[in-house]
Amino acid sequence: MSQGGGFYQNSSPFNQSQASPGGAGEAKRTELSHSVRPLTLAQVNKAHQAHTDAEWTLEGSEVGQVTIIGHVVNISEQTTNFLYTLEDGTGKVEARRWREQNSEEDADKWGDIQVNQVIRVTGHMKAFGSRKYVNAVNIRPSEDPHEIYFHMIEALTVTLSLQNGAPGGTVGQKSPGTASAYTAQSSGIANDDMAEYKHLPPLQREIIKVLLSQPEHDEGGVHVGVVAKAVQKQGMTSASISDALDALMDAGQIYTTSDDAHFQVSR
């Protein structure tokens, strides 16, 4: 579904209020801060920092790099940078990109962006005073007229997955105070599938069950955010989840796949 943008990733599963000040939990948050999350411009405007040095968060989830898409409604050319004002129907956000030292290199890398073009911007969220903007590491024109719609759907899918667990659970049966659709699905794992893990501590067994319950477990691996979202519903802390993941990796029960944030069961 992504049209040149990022992956579903996301963001840290560990809410800042639950994250330990150091150790394995903090290390995993740092790794996740390099992930790319698709956002609407309204979501960019809703994201916030606890303080100027804190990670950006949106609805309790850490936001690393972001990818946005929108119509260019204004370009402000300055001595050291270009400032693009984007709109996507949900809000307005500025994207800033810095000039290269060589003008030819600048044109080759960034292209000739014009007002009224649709562009995709990937970068990091920044703030100057009360104004938020995206500090661009990549900008490109959108050639596909459907790309902006795909992006909106992708941003919505990621947000709902972070809130409710990955798709594939029992739809329509979740109510406030109950387990997520993701947790409901994990309970459907056959006992035979878990027999070889009965010697593991309860939290490690639950993580294995979560990994096996996901449709992507035998493809690209399951994102740590999906795992944490499920087991945190049962009162587990970020530190204990991190320790359990590390223990499972040390024992060879699980391994990382495409990056350090995606896990797969060793079978």
Describe the structure.
By secondary structure, the protein is α+β, with helices and mostly antiparallel strands. It has helices spanning 24-32, 41-46, 103-110, 147-164, 181-186, 191-194, 202-213, 224-232, 238-250; strands at residues 36-38, 48-49, 56-58, 61-63, 65-77, 81-87, 92-98, 118-128, 131-141, 222-223, 254-256, 262-265. Helix 1 (24-32) packs across helix 9 (238-250) and helix 7 packs across helix 8 (224-232). The longest helix is centred in the middle third of the chain and has 18 residues, at 147-164. The two termini are 29 Å apart. Mean pLDDT is 75; it is low at 1-30 and 170-188.
Topology diagram in text:
Elements: H1 24-32, E1 36-38, H2 41-46, E2 48-49, E3 56-58, E4 61-63, E5 65-77, E6 81-87, E7 92-98, H3 103-110, E8 118-128, E9 131-141, H4 147-164, H5 181-186, H6 191-194, H7 202-213, E10 222-223, H8 224-232, H9 238-250, E11 254-256, E12 262-265
Parallel strand pairs: 1-5, 7-9
Antiparallel strand pairs: 2-3, 3-4, 5-6, 5-8, 6-7, 8-9, 10-12, 11-12
Subcellular location: Nucleus
Protein name: Replication protein A subunit RPA32
Pfam families: RPA_C (PF08784), tRNA_anti-codon (PF01336)
